[in-house]
Amino acid sequence: xxxxxxxxxxxxxxxxxxxxxxxxxxxxxxxxxxxxxxxxxxxxxxxxxxxxxxxxxxxxxxxxxxxxxxxxxxxxxxxxxxxxxxxxxxxxxxxxxxxxxxxxxxxxxxxxxxxxxxxxxxxxxxxxxxxxxxxxxxxxxxxxxxxxxxxxxxxxxxxxxxxxxxxxxxxxxxxxxxxxxxxxxxxxxxxxxxxxxxxxxxxxxxxxxxxxxxxxxxxxxxxxxxxxxxxxxxxxxxxxxxxxxxxxxxxxxxxxxxxxxxxxxxxxxxxxxxxxxxxxxxxxxxxxxxxxxxxxxxxxxxxxxxxxxxxxxxxxxxxxxxxxxxxxxxxxxxxxxxxxxxxxxxxxxxxxxxxxxxxxxxxxxxxxxxxxxxxxxxxxxxxxxxxxxxxxxxxxxxxxxxxxxxxxxxxxxx
Amino acid sequence: xxxxxxxxxxxxxxxxxxxxxxxxxxxxxxxxxxxxxxxxxxxxxxxxxxxxxxxxxxxxxxxxxxxxxxxxxxxxxxxxxxxxxxxxxxxxxxxxxxxxxxxxxxxxxxxxxxxxxxxxxxxxxxxxxxxxxxxxxxxxxxxxxxxxxxxxxxxxxxxxxxxxxxxxxxxxxxxxxxxxxxxxxxxxxxxxxxxxxxxxxxxxxxxxxxxxxxxxxxxxxxxxxxxxxxxxxxxxxxxxxxxxxxxxxxxxxxxxxxxxxxxxxxxxxxxxxxxxxxxxxxxxxxxxxxxxxxxxxxxxxxxxxxxxxxxxxxxxxxxxxxxx
Lengths: 414, 324
Description:
B: mainly beta
């Protein structure tokens, strides 16, 4: 964050404090009612925690190396946005960022955050780490916002009553992609998947999407990770020879699907296929919850604000974290409260919706607390399309054509 | 832009009333192809296409009809266009990415929403100087001014508030929470109420200008359309204050609302992604901009029937009609 922002805010605060008379007794304001709110001179502080498992990470392309503040930068912009609104309502938001190593035990770090008074915690953790704190959080009245894990199991068998999922699931991402390929009438796919667990899970989601939307996976092939380094001085020579050979025995197909969350081979597939075919999934046309080039639906305003604050483009995890912090801010503004119970009730109510530059309001699936949202489909430079695609209809919300729908859910909130 | 043209009609209705269809010119900003279409409202034909700055959006006209003001969003400026020669004769210091603005009733001040800085900027149109910067909520957008010029309302999209601003002191006096992503604010011609559309919330909040409380929230329901597709944006209220028209974006329809009962009496099918609206000065016709079908629709205000759609430039955004 640039040093300017807090200064500017401070000036604004000063202006308002000087200019406006106080509004008494916040507590008397009823929730959900649009109220004339006078600027405040007494702030309620709402502390939002951020718990992340992070270590610098390599990628096949240097352009894909996640920035060190991925996610956190989005949360910070949302804190500023909440505070701009909060200055009219007497609410002040702060962010408490805590970091652990990937695969580390997070219980201690989480307990420390609770001890510091965090009642709303964004979690950018693995599914296993998230589950290790979910029930502790529930017993302490803490709400968790999952901004990192796409695992369907967290919304299904292992769903929790106090865990809101902002990040889309693998099945939502796969369905968004599959709808587009079907809309294009490119229904015959081959599936290449990596040998690590996340790759297998994404491959499962793509298989499920094929079944749901009438795609046909005519062949599958696993790319084994044999422990090669990701960068060598002349590696491209071998890649150009090896990748086509890996794909030469595949039957006729329209699209090559790639499931390689682990970044072992996916980036090398486009333009190295045996026959000329488009690539989609973890490479080529990639489904995501945000795209750094999206400017539709007021998105350029978000992008400008984010770029100005963080000095880089906004990525999906930044958007998920921004949305999570805004959800708390929205509920605090509407309820005029910092009480986790009231805020939790409001987020679960029919009155709740959030705007996140995706062309329509986003709401939660009440049966598993997953945020409904459109899925962006883009390549490295631009947004190609957004799903749900035209013609995929649903009796409740067309957004529910993406991912596991209520009749199929295995979730019982507990 | 349009809101001025609507309010202006209030003043002009008495003067111009009920002659033969007067030939006014409508000016349409075409967001995608950087042009302004000039349309004869009597013949409903495009008479000229004027190249303008990049990404033209908000558009309004001086009360004497001599100058068109146009937000050239991607050029970070407001262009002043001579309404006779259609030449760009000057620019105003809008700040980055201007989108919407409103001209004060005395025609001297242009109030501009600056989304990047969460400010409303007041510009003296004669001296071309910034006379005030007023901090508001996140992503200021909709701008309305009361007929007496004393109160200005700005809506901030991410904050979801209507900010009431005293135009003399330039201070925010009231902040009213409305539904998500408020886009537009329109005063009733008698100044008693402000109508604020919420694009993502899908509602219009009617705010009493005395108490600064929401007195009514108007919902929309169109058979066969999911609620997410109903996204209210532009609002126009007739000079007699009896009917309000609300553009519903990707619902491709304009709602006609009885301002006494707040009931939607009709949905008028226009073009795709209907965004903004303007009356002709005689109040007989309402013009809509339909962004995704590249056209504008003329609606007969007496019958609320669409009369004709006319192809303009790419992605028409705003519209204003000359007062004379």
